[in-house]
Amino acid sequence: MRQSLVRPLLMLGAERELVLASGMISVILVITLGNLVLAALGVTFWIVSLFVFQRMAKADPQLLRVYVRHVNKKIFYPAQPHFCALEPEPKKHQ
Fold first, then answer.
1. What gap in Å lies between CA 45 and CA 83, rounded to an integer?
2. What is the DSSP letter of 94?
3. Angle between helices 63-72 and 36-59 in degrees, nearest 10
4. What is the pLDDT of residues 7-66, one digit of tens each?
5. Where are the beta strands (DSSP E) in the chain?
6. Residue 18: other Cβ atoms inside 10 A
């Protein structure tokens, strides 16, 4: 199997969704607020978040998907029969 088919899709060494989201937040800080201090804050935010996301991607390239799947799981699943299982016959007392 070709390695390019199973390799995770990363952008700048981190997960694409996280890099793009942090980039959009930093661009919003820089452009819309129009203050030099907030522009520096936006650039600093993007650099720090990119560093953190790259470290996360080194640990697990699909960490975001794993975390979202983990959050959607319930803590307790009650026992239930399969949806097409036959109903058990009630015991008759003699």
1. 50
2. -
3. 80
4. 888 889 999 999 999 999 999 888 888 788 888 999 999 999 999 999 999 999 988 888
5. 10-11, 14-15
6. 19
